[in-house]
Every structure is written in structure tokens, then in C-alpha cells.
Amino acid sequence: MKRRSFLTAVAGAAFLTACGAGEDDTGTAGAKITLGFSAWPGWFPWQVAQEKGLFAKNGVTVELKYFDSYTDSLNALATGNLTCNSQTLNDTLSSVSGGSKQTIVLLNDNSTGNDQIIAAPGIRTVADLKGKKVAAEQGTVDHYLLLLALEKAGLTEKDVTFTPLLTDAAAAAFVAGQVDAVGVFAPFTTTALGRSGSTAVSTSKDFPGAIPDALSFQAQFVKDHPDEVQKVVQTWFDTTAWIKDNAAEAVSIMAKKGGVSDADYKTYDAGTTIFTKEQNIEAFTPGGDAKHLDYQANKIAEFLVSTKLVDAKPPLDGLFEPKFVKAVR
Questions:
Q1: Residues spanned by the domain of 247
Q2: Which residues does UniProt call coiled coil (predicted)?
Q3: Over the stretch 130-143, which tens digit does the pLDDT of each residue have?
């Protein structure tokens, strides 16, 4: 299972057609919305919205598309085969840099600890990773977290032996003792920490605001169908309110989708900070610190260019549209 890659390759047309949004998604008023999401605690509430009928309650037709491969969801949106997708700001910037026209209408959450660099016994700091074998899924946000952590410790990727593996395979390799450290996200953090004596030497909590998770739409759909977009955004906040009032049932729904126990799912709570309407409005407001999306977007874009993960800094004009969260009841 993959999540949160910021290097988007175009997938084959046959696959994208098979998981596409359909011809009617953007053609008429009240069109069906195909919403993509994948394994991440901040996105599992969409499953709750579907199972509890909250999309229908708001009068919007939404087909959820769950992707085992997060990268495939990015490709599907970038090539117009999803109406919208749950993805990181990093990945949206990468897609926009490649020419995709997208608009972010909602900030689901910030990663506040559920992305982790987990190391073997005896490795206590990021500096101790020098000369060690470190696995992560190349091009994912946890690869990005590794680069941020190394930079903060005065190191670069050249100071470690980077081993690119899919996230589930990377966690398994770490548990088997084949690598010295691993970059993973929840729920694979649970797998990696199963290695006796292992510990997280760096997490997304160390880099506040660096990994925002958002709902990004095809830009043209936002222009053509603002009422439908509004209903989806309203459903998100109705869902988070329902989860707050029905915590046990909600955890069971989300844990089942994530393939973990209810108890394990509860441990992810602090590591994913779901944003309120007020936090959304603050994030969409231009500003000069980590609370603001424009500030983070510029920092992430500069980092992606400097590390040659994208060729050019993506344009930010029109990327953020705050009117929908502002209109939430």
C-alpha cells in the first residue's frame, strides 16, 4: 500500500480509464463527483461519510475510489480521471509543476507525528544514521521527511545508503533487520515499531506544518460546479462532527478500512491533526509562518527544486480557494 508520493509519473491510459471519473462528472450541473483517497488517518473519514450517508444528506452524488497505490490516485487526478483527490500539498505542487490544473478547496489535516523515521536499537539520533542503510519509498513524503531530517542534522542523502522500497516492503525489511532505519507512515509505523528496541528518531512533529493533507479538485470542475464542491466540503465538516459524537463507531469504520485494530487506530490520533473550519480559514489566509498554506507551499516548492525532485517551481496563482470553507455552516 502506497501513500503520499510527491513524484508523479503518468500511468497507463488503460488503468486510468478503468478507475476514471466517467464522462458525466464534469458535463452537467449536479454531476457525479469521483473522490479518490488512500491509506492515511486524515483521509479515512471519507469512508465514514459514505457509510453514514452524509454525502446523500447534503444532496451530492459522490463515488469514492480507494487506491492501494497512492501514486495511482495522483496520476488519476493529474490526467483528469478523478474529479478530486485527497493528497498532500507536496504532491499537488509536483503535479502542478508538471502542468496539471488543480485547486485546493479543503485542508483535511496536518501530519503531526504519523510520518516517522524509525531506527534500529543503538541509533538514537538522525546524526547516528550516517553510514547506515535507510529504506523508504522513493518519491514519497516519508522520503521528503528523511531529507528534511538529514538536512536539519547537517547531513545529506549521500551520507546514508538510501534503499528505495515500497512502504510496506520497507517496513518489513526493517523488521527483518535488512536495513538500519526506515521512513514510514501510519499504519506502517505500527509494523516497523514491532522490531524490538526500535524507536522514532524523527517524525513530522519535528517539522510543524511541513506535511499538510488536502482535497484537490480539477480546477475546471471548481469553476463549472461550485455548488457541488461546496456540498463536498460541507460533508467533510459534517463528518468530522459526526465522528466527534460517535467516536467508537467511527474508529471501527476507519480501522477496518485501514486494516488495523481499533486499538492501533486510536494510537494514530495525536499524529494526525484534523483541521477545524477556523484552522482551515487561517491556513488559507496568506501569512508568514507555518500555519499558512502559501508560506508552506513556497518552502516546499523551493525544497523540491533544490533537491531536483521537480524541474521548476510550480505557479501558486489560483491554487488555493478559501471560499468553500468560509461558507461552511
A1: 13-110+211-326
A2: none
A3: 999 999 988 778 88
